[in-house]
Structure formats: structure tokens, C-alpha cells
Amino acid sequence: MSAEVPSKRDWSDLSARIASAFVLGAVCFSMIFFSIGTTAIIAAVGCGIMGWEWSRISGGESTNVAQAMVVAASVVPPIMAFFISPLIAVIGVVVGAVLVVLVSVDKAKAVKQSAPGIVVIALTGICFVWLRSDAHVGLHVALWLPFTVIAADVGAYFAGRFVGGPKLAPKISPNKTISGAVGGQIAAVIVGTGYAAAFGLGSIGTLVILSFLTAIVSQFGDLTESALKRGYGVKDTSALIPGHGGLLDRFDGLIAAILFVALVTLLAGSTIFAW
To answer: Is residue 8 part of a domain?
Structure first.
């Protein structure tokens, strides 16, 4: 999310950051104009694309049938979460992952690589639909999440460029800096808490902590995807966004943030804006 060249500032990937923010922003505003059911379908389509990207880089599916199963296993659970129930959808994720393994030529690789990625992607879709479905604040949660992640990304980018300093994880992603990570967390706290305050949602103290933790988790998601791509020897998950990679490249931090917020919501037994 951030980078620094000691002798001069490198803005060569600024357009990629703008593209990321635009894509995430488009998803955010689509949720204002569309129903929850339509949002579930949009989430399902996104999960299907990311499932295809994951199968493409993990290399466990070498046949059209296997790749089609990967896409289906990613698309169906988010739709099930809305039209049936999130619990049944989770069962669907397990069934889908098993079917992906069964139809894959290299079953060992599918178990170790393909299936875990599909589970994460499909669960993210389920969690997003579940959070969005809250009758009172679901829309706010669904907007707060991308806004906070975008803020973390933008804050990290500019803090890393202007401040520089030690690298955050040089063996995984050599361009990311500690200053960038801190800048991203500060920006996320400002935006996440500001959003809640603007709409009179939740406790400010709680939202400060939650925004901070969400930024950390989103940055961890970004690093995790970078490590996986490095392990698989690929630069981008796809060329869906010309010059800027695929949806997984753009949504890695958001995936982690959605799963995190869904987990704390489940453990707390209430929406984050009711704490």
C-alpha cells in the first residue's frame, strides 16, 4: 500500500491506486441505488471473477469443467446467503470446495491451494451480504467498510511516498514502508470515525479502535496476497483492469476487512454501530 524511493518519489503506480479507489467507490455507490438482493448478485459476480482469478494463479484446475466448478463455488454461496440463509450458504461453501477438489486433475494441489482460496472468497461474499442485510444499519456498514479500506490504502500510499523510511516487509513486498502502514492506519481512523460521527452511529471511541484494527487487517490482507503471488511467481491475478491487475489485486485488503468485521460482529452479537 505504500512505497518510497530514497532519492526521489516514484508516482508511477498512482494511476493503479486511483483505479482501485474508483472500482471500490463504484461498488459503494451501487449499494445506495440498488436493493439488497441486487447487491447480493453484484457481490456474487465479483466473487465469481475472483474465484476464476484464483484458479488461474493457483494452478489446480487444468480443465474447463474444473474452472467452471471454481466459478460456481464462488458465485452460488453469496446468492444463497440472501435468498436462503447465511448458514446454509456456509454449508454450500464446503460442498463447493469438495466438488472443486473432486473435479480437479491435480487433487493434492487443489486441496492445498485452490480449495482454501475458494473458501475465503466465497465466505467473503457471504459475510458481505450478511452485513449488508441488517435492516437498520446494513447499508452504513457496507459503505463504511470500503471507505475505511480506501482511506487506509490512500493514506499508506502518500505517507510512504513523502516520509519513506524502513521497509515493512521487504521479503514479501519490498515497496511497502512502516511509515506507509502508520499513515494508512491514521487515515482509516479519520475516515472511519468521521463517517460514523457524520451519521450519528455508534460510539466514537469504539469506532476509533475498530477503524484502526480494520486498517491493520486490510494491510495484512494486502501483504498476504503479495506473498501468495510471489510464491506462485505471478505479478497480477489477471489483466481484467488493463495495466492494474485483477479484482483480487484491488480487493485483497477489503476481503480481509470484510471477514474481520463479520467475525467481530458475530462474536459481539450485534452490528458494529450498536456497540
So the answer is: no
DSSP character string of the chain? -----TTS---TTHHHHHHHHHHHHHHHHHHHHS-HHHHHHHHHHHHHHHHHHHHHHH----SHHHHHHHHHHHHHHHHHHHHT-HHHHHHHHHHHHHHHHHH-SSHHHIIIIIHHHHHHHHHHHHHHHHHHT-TTTHHHHHHHHHHHHHHHHHHHHHHHHHH--SEEETTTEEEEEHHHHHHHHHHHHHHHHHHHHHTT-S-HHHHHHHHHHHHHHHHHHHHHHHHHHHHHT-S-S-SSBTTTB-HHHHHHHHHHHHHHHHHHHHHHTS-GGG-
pLDDT for 50 = 94
In a domain, 29, yes or no: yes
Split the chain (275 residues) into runs of 10 and give each run's mean pLDDT: 42 66 71 81 93 84 79 95 96 95 87 91 96 91 92 89 83 84 95 94 92 96 91 84 78 95 94 84
- What is the total count of domains within the chain? 1
Degrees to nearest 5, angle at CA 235 with 120 and 231: 60
